[in-house]
Design a protein that fits this description.
An eight-stranded antiparallel β-barrel has the order 1-2-3-4-5-6-7-8. A hairpin with a 4-residue loop joins strand 5 and strand 6. Helices cover about 10% and strands about 45% of the residues. It is mainly beta and about 150 residues long. The longest helix is centred in the first third of the chain and has 18 residues.
Length: about 150
Amino acid sequence: MRKTLRVVLALMLMSALVQAAEDISGVWRTVDDETNEPKSLVQIYKHQDKYFGRVIKLFKNPDATAKDIKGSPKILGLDVIWNMAEDGKEFSGGKILDPKKGKIYSCVIWKKEDGNLNVRGKIGPFGRSQTWFPTTEPPLSGLTPQIPEKE
């Protein structure tokens, strides 16, 4: 009986480990949907068991500001992803901001088999996905969340 219980517990533990999401922390390169050119670098960082994403570099127009966000902050340095929590093989429960449109969407992120990220913003069943690519850019340290507010 004890041996069977140990086997069952071991299988449950292995199953939980297999289903855990891969870490998404690090610096990721985003690509413009229309031109297919590099758009920004976003650092995904963990803070108190939640994941956040901050724009740490803009390849064009580093002085661009976020539309319809309180204080009209610059996009560079802005958290565009917040409150993402691990949920099986993906991260969900948080939000993503499209700073050019000033729209905030529900967000789901997961790491693909090729090591890239699939980042999906959505409203209900409708949404749009982007692929983000890993970089060798060193991450910034000491980041704390600064969640943007709509005007």
